[in-house]
Amino acid sequence: NDTELGEGWEEIGSAAFLSTAITSIHIPASVTSILTFAFSHNSNLAFVTFAAGSLLETIGDNAFRNTSIVSIEIPAKVIYIGTFAFFYCQDLASVTFATGREEDALLSIKSSAFYNTAITSIAIPATVISIWPQAFNQCSVLASVTFAADSVLGSIGDNAFQSTAITSIIIPTSVTSIGHYAFSGASILATVM
What pTM value is reported for the model? Predict the structure, then answer.
């Protein structure tokens, strides 16, 4: 059940492919928005790829919730990763951000976006301005979080990295707010700079 959408699509609507038997999806460069619950609750969906030159800006709330995605590269123009976007994607072990992000492509990672995934490391791009509450909460094998040297990150939300396996972290100097329980339960976190 491999699915490849043809060029010309600009939006994938709310719940468009909710609870289907799709195993993989290739999203054309023309798509700018993936809306709420678009691919949610597809237990067989393991592979999501984006065409070169992707214009995608929005990954909506719950867009890939409860899928079996194993890895994802977030396209360079994305400025919004919605609440619960990859919530409970328990096979999701690799999240990377495409190179070539523009300085004004400011990005928010919304609440519980990657809650309870299998991510082991994440490099947060310089243009991320906020990490919302519980964004990476319960990512129990997340051991490495790095921020770009020129990061503009302003806030790390409540419980954002709670119950992770982070051992050390360097907080960008741009951060002005760290929320309640942000690193609570990260029991082997020994160094904060």
Answer: 0.94
CA 80 to CA 91: how far, in whole Å?
22
Provide the phi-psi class of 143: left if phi over 0, else alpha when psi is between -120 and 50, else beta. alpha
How long is the chain?
193
How far apart are the C-alpha atoms of 165 and 48, rounded to whole Å? 26
CA dist 121 and 118 (Å) reads: 9
CA–CA distance, 50 with 61 (Å, rounded to integer): 18
- Contact criterion met (CB below 8 Å) for 44 and 1: yes
Beta strands per DSSP E along 23-88? 24-27, 33-34, 47-50, 58-59, 71-74, 80-81
- Strand stretches in the chain, DSSP E: 2-4, 11-12, 24-27, 33-34, 47-50, 58-59, 71-74, 80-81, 94-97, 107-109, 121-124, 128-131, 144-147, 155-156, 168-169, 177-178, 191-192
Q: What is the DSSP letter of 6?
A: P
Which residue type, as a one-letter code, is found at position 125? Answer: P
Tens of pLDDT, residue by residue over 31-46, are 999 999 999 999 999 9
- Helix (H/G/I), strand (E/B), else coil: 26: strand
